[in-house]
Amino acid sequence: MNWDYPQPYTLPLVPRPEDIDGLNHTNNAVYVRWCEQVGWAHSESLGLSLEDYRRLDRAMAIRHGAYDYLLPTLLGEELTLGTWLVGGDGKLSMERRFQLIRNSDGATVLRGRWELVCIDISGGRPRRMPPEFLAAYMPQVVPA
């Protein structure tokens, strides 16, 4: 597959009947949900779960999300969604990117980007990333 960045964390996906909209394509909201799923799976693979976020009273919250819907996908098509951390200041912010590829022809059908900011869960205010976040996330950052 022709990935935008090296060594993505990947999730295989196949649109199901409930993912399809009135135009017989995968609904745009489904892509957003899939990005959330792969983001959490990647975080968990690095050793940080939602339970850890709650215990630390910290979370990486989406400050801005952007998606480029390049091509439609159809019911039953085999897809692979990749994600990377491509930026981080080591204090408050990180960036996560996404690329969805159709397996049959290698075409990129979606690109996405999240600007993330560390917040305290209890108050929703920006806070420095705790050492656990830095240890898990920062070694994974690839150059943008």
Automatic annotation (TrEMBL):
SUPFAM superfamilies reported in the protein's UniProt record: Thioesterase/thiol ester dehydrase-isomerase
InterPro entries xref list: 4-hydroxybenzoyl-CoA_TE, HotDog_dom_sf
Pfam families referenced in this protein's UniProt entry, alphabetically: 4HBT_2
GO MF annotations, alphabetized: hydrolase activity
Keyword Hydrolase: yes
Domain of life: Bacteria
Enzyme class of the recorded protein, top EC level: hydrolase
CDD domains hit by this protein: 4HBT
Alphabetic keyword roster: Hydrolase
Record EC number: 3.1.2.-
PANTHER family: 4-HYDROXYBENZOYL-COA THIOESTERASE FAMILY MEMBER (PTHR31793), ACYL-COA THIOESTER HYDROLASE YBGC (PTHR31793:SF37)
Designated name of the protein: Acyl-CoA thioesterase
Organism per entry: Massilia haematophila
